[in-house]
Amino acid sequence: MAPPWCSRQGDDLRLAVYVQPNAATSAVVGEHDGALKLKLKAPPVDGKANDALQSIIAELLGVARRDVSLLQGLSSRKKVISVKTAMSVEQACALLTASAQ
């Protein structure tokens, strides 16, 4: 069964994420309040943390950066990400949770 933070919406995956900017390193660290939690090295200034988030999600799922977009939470720690991929929810969840520290 897929976790509540990962679902499919048409052709896209939807990920609910919780970010912690200004961390020592960027990494998936588990779950927080029904969302995938990521620590980001980038500061929350001028969209740097959002860019870093999109880049790390693209890298972990093996998709192009242009296939990852931020749908909600531009200036919030709680965000919703859309990923254009044919990957199943189970595959995506496995890739993201396998990288958790």
* Total discrete domains: 1
Mean pLDDT: 94
Query: Can you tell me the residue ranges where pLDDT is under 50 for at least 5 consecutive residues?
Result: none
Tell how many strands the DSSP assignment holds. 6
Q: Rounded to an integer, what's the Rg over CA atoms?
A: 12 Å
**Broad CATH class:** Alpha Beta
CATH topology: Conserved Hypothetical Protein Mth637, Chain: A
Backbone structural class:
alpha+beta
Distance between the termini: 22 Å
CATH homologous superfamily - what is it?
A: YggU-like
Strand residue percentage: 35-45%
Structural notes for this entry:
With 101 residues, this protein is an alpha+beta fold. The longest helix has 14 residues, at 48-61. The chain has one domain: 2-Layer Sandwich (Conserved Hypothetical Protein Mth637, Chain: A), CATH 3.30.1200.10. The mean pLDDT is 94. The protein is built from 2 helices and 6 strands.
